[in-house]
Amino acid sequence: MQTHVTFPSAGLKIAGHLYTPDGDTAGPLPAVVVGHPGSGVKEQAAGVYARRLAEHGFVTLAFDAAHQGESEGEPRGLEDPAQRVEDLRAAVSFLTTRAEADPGRISALGICASGGYALAAAATDQRIRAVATVSAVDIARQFRHGADGGQDPAVLRGMLAAAAAARTAEARGEGVPAFRLFPATEDEARAGGPHAHEGWEYYRTPRARHPRAAEEFTWNSVDRIAGFDAFHALELLAPRPLLMIAGREAVTSWMSVAAFQRVTGPKELFWIDGATHVGLYDRDEYVTPAVAKLAAFFREP
């Protein structure tokens, strides 16, 4: 069953979907907070995983980040890593108040950028008993090094220059400048390579397009992102367990490997053959084994 809920995060009202197993199920049940990819909304990949995990007997909560989707926050399209981490903590707080959820068995699942955010939140919030990621990305590493790790450093320097100019324009009352997240056409997307094209196809075609998904980020997101490090406190995660799921064909998998190598406690890096980064968002042949692995992981005492 899906229920629309709201909860506070740093003074903003966050919109979420709470999923509970169908039928009469004795509670309270183990619960999972599910964070969405950068630019996504709760109705896309996060909702897919939240719904599927509820079918396995979990209470799950997928929600829109502040400044995005149905959640409050101005300017719209702001991607603020500190706020995104706080949103995850706030979602845990909300679940502790729900009779359906066992407050001692709340875990976190982060997809794409929320994979990095979930790691940062879990490292310092000991209420999160276990953390898992799917196609994990540290958004700062992606902005600095590109999705495949091979980006010219000049790209980020140029973006930071544009962000600085945008902040000056905002101070002068010229509005909050933003930049487009996706190519305008399929030809442009294909020119960016398979990863760029698949992201465009997921977010910009009927495959998964949603009217509330972000099409732009504000330029004042960039300096916030550049100074973030999702992996900086991973030594604090132990002895709580970590599961990272990555596709063998995902160009972003190097970030899962980098995070995995820094964790000292119980951990597993689970590879799904044939899966790309975005393929793990919604392709059933990849989502089904991922959910089965997650359900077993979150069910462990």
Question: How would you describe this structure to a colleague?
Answer:
It is a single chain. The chain is built from eleven helices and ten strands. It is of the alpha/beta class. The protein has one domain: Rossmann fold (3-Layer(aba) Sandwich). It has an eight-stranded mixed sheet with strand order 1-2-4-3-5-6-9-10, with helices on both faces. Helix 2 packs across helix 3. The longest helix has 19 residues. The chain starts with a strand and ends with a helix. The mean pLDDT is 96.
Short description:
The protein is an alpha/beta fold. It is built from eleven helices and ten strands. It has helices spanning 45-55, 81-96, 113-124, 139-145, 153-171, 186-191, 194-204, 222-226, 253-262, 279-282, 284-299, and strands at residues 2-9, 12-19, 29-35, 59-63, 101-111, 128-134, 178-180, 216-218, 242-247, 267-272.
Write the layout of secondary structure elements.
Elements: E1 2-9, E2 12-19, E3 29-35, H1 45-55, E4 59-63, H2 81-96, E5 101-111, H3 113-124, E6 128-134, H4 139-145, H5 153-171, E7 178-180, H6 186-191, H7 194-204, E8 216-218, H8 222-226, E9 242-247, H9 253-262, E10 267-272, H10 279-282, H11 284-299
Parallel strand pairs: 3-4, 3-5, 5-6, 6-9, 9-10
Antiparallel strand pairs: 1-2, 2-4, 7-8
Helix pairs in contact: 2-3
| Main pleated sheet | 8 strands, mixed
* Regions with little confidence, pLDDT below 50 for 5+ residues: none
User: Which percent range describes the beta-strand content?
Assistant: 15-25%
Percentage of residues in helical conformation: 25-40%
- CATH fold category name: Rossmann fold
Number of domains: 1
Report the average pLDDT across residues.
96
Series of secondary-structure elements, N-terminal to C-terminal: EEEHEHEHEHHEHHEHEHEHH
Number of helices: 11
Shape: globular
The strand order across the widest sheet is 1-2-4-3-5-6-9-10
Radius of gyration: 18 Å
CATH domain class name: Alpha Beta
In whole angstroms, the N-to-C terminal distance is 25 Å
CATH superfamily: Alpha/Beta hydrolase fold, catalytic domain
Give me the count of strands: 10
